Amino acid sequence: xxxxxxxxxxxxxxxxxxxxxxxxxxxxxxxxxxxxxxxxxxxxxxxxxxxxxxxxxxxxxxxxxxxxxxxxxxxxxxxxxxxxxxxxxxxxxxxxxxxxxxxxxxxxxxxxxxxxxxxxxxxxxxxxxxxxxxxxxxxxxxxxxxxxxxxxxxxxxxxxxxxxxxxxxxxxxxx
Length: 175
Hints:
Layout: E1 16-18, H1 27-33, E2 37-51, E3 58-73, H2 78-88, E4 101-109, E5 135-143, H3 145-154
Parallel strand pairs: 1-5
Antiparallel strand pairs: 1-3, 2-3, 2-4, 4-5
């Protein structure tokens, strides 16, 4: 894949920030993203918390950060990819009562070149407030309102904002 250029998406085609089963090496990456992205780069969502879910995580607005990957859709597949991700994330439209996630636009930090393109920042990646490669606006799937209320009252925050599947190495890949 090419190096991610935040200026490359055509007008109206925002990149996507992913932080769970769509990360490189996770089960849904190959199923939904293979051949549909032209760039992937380590990125950070600030002012958010990551919660453990039933085999996948939820991000919500909060005082923390979530580590993930910024994706650029390959030419000609943006609408297809958007539809696939909306379906996967059970997003039916803004504020729909049956949404599992809401698709929202957020500012995403692109750390310096260390860890770029690997999905997860490497040790030594710039910390919050450190100089990086700037920020871009991207689509992010945050937990819907009802899910967020439940997480705030009884959910388990993932320290450090980095999600990895809880499966053993070489074990079965489940969604």
